[in-house]
Amino acid sequence: MSDPEASIIILTRNGESTLRECLEHVYAQNYTNFEVIVIDSASTDRTLEIVSAFPVKLFNINVKDFGHGKTRNFGARLAKGKYLIYLTQDAIPLNDKWLENLIRNFKDKDVAGVYSRNIPRPDCDPFEARYISTGWGPTREVKSIRDYKNYKKLVFFSNTSSCLRKDVWDKFPFDDSLVQTEDQAWSKEVLEAGYKIVYDPDSIVIHSHNNSLEVLFKKYFDAGTAHMKIFKNRNNVYLPLIPFFVVAVIFLDLRFMLGHAYKPIEIVKWVPEAFVRHFVEAIGFWLGLHFDRLPLSLKRKFTASGRY
């Protein structure tokens, strides 16, 4: 039997609430020339039971061995396909064209990676819904280093649902040292090497989180840490300006809610939470940018990772 053309790599950890639906939609694709590799980090719920109902290749690792870049690199080394598809356990392909709409972009030999559109779940809070709706829009983008003037937007890439050309990954694997945003670091590297990145909004997954304040703080701390490591600067992010940033983002929230038929009583309910939420996000990100100046005890307390 010949090797599959594509390898779908899913990292799991206690994913019972979404994993069955995720795998059902994967195996319902029009494009069928693929294998599925599941790498589980010591799940204690029904994840492994769910996985056993599907024809996947299962690999188990210890929690302490997990890393967003490290484990995805492990999956790539296991893969037999020439295309590496990364899908998170809580991202649900919207329809049966999700996969073919990713792979079709590689007709252009200069394309190194493609990522999908995200749309929020019905129960998504308005802040996350706005972020997703504005960050993953309806317009296809082909990004290359020629668009240097918009560099931060240029390198954006998301392994929530993505596809990489494996021969490019061979030359540019993910950075094992990053706590998160390994996808954007990879995108930056391949763009600087002359490749293209494509955002294809016709490949769609349903994906969003309603995170607690603690989870948000740690997420943004790790994002700030990764930003500093990738871009090596913390310019224009000043502590005294954070209140102004928070107010500006709340105006974006209000505009989004008014434009999406939220009831006045719902808006009144959400606004106080918006102040707290965006302040926590901003402080977390700022502290992450200054991770190299923090004592080890605080870094261990602030991060969602076990890296320190």
TrEMBL record:
InterPro entries: Glyco_trans_2-like (IPR001173), Glycosyltransf_2 (IPR050834), Nucleotide-diphossugar_trans (IPR029044). GO terms for molecular function: glycosyltransferase activity. Pfam families: Glycos_transf_2 (PF00535). The chain crosses the membrane at residues 237-254, 274-291. The keyword Transcription regulation does not apply. Keywords: Glycosyltransferase, Membrane, Transferase, Transmembrane, Transmembrane helix. Its EC number is 2.4.1.-. This is O antigen biosynthesis rhamnosyltransferase rfbN. It comes from Methanosarcina siciliae C2J.
